[in-house]
Amino acid sequence: MPRGSEAGPLTPEQQQELADAGQRARSLSRAGKIATFNVWSIGGFAAITLLFGMGSLEAMMLGLGMAFVARNEFRGRALLRSFDAAGPRLLAHNQLGFMGLIILYCCWSIYRTLYGPGLDMVGMEELLAGWEDLVATLTLAVYGTVIAATAIFQGLLARYYWGQVRVVEEYVRVTPAWVVELQRTVGRG
Known about the structure:
There is one protein chain. This protein is mainly α. It is built from six helices and no strands.
């Protein structure tokens, strides 16, 4: 008997349901890829910050904060991949928390530069005399730009994830339960 005439384990209708579900899940797959990128990039920066920030309380706190964000991103991605609406909710909240962490760090750095002990504590007061205004201006410009970019980027990413909540709920509502369970099983592998 030729191979092409053998009946597969799925009926043609089931094969079509599976193909349709795959098309509906494309947006969720894209969101999962974004979360995967975030896990690795934020986790990598957390590791670098912790490694090179030893001895600095600020760097250690920032590194631990980023590690917590990376961990939540990993959890949210896993929930998203199992078609649980809690996943994109967690990812959205996580982006808002990450935005808060970055903005807090920038504000602290601005405060420390403008009102802290300054550069004189490293013995460079004579070399940099008269440059304090330039240092203050550059500090405000750099950290202000980071704050604005973070608010825009993390804010838009949080909004994107919030939109994925509806996509997950619609996907689970419309897709046959056996297909969702099959994809959950395959997604864990």
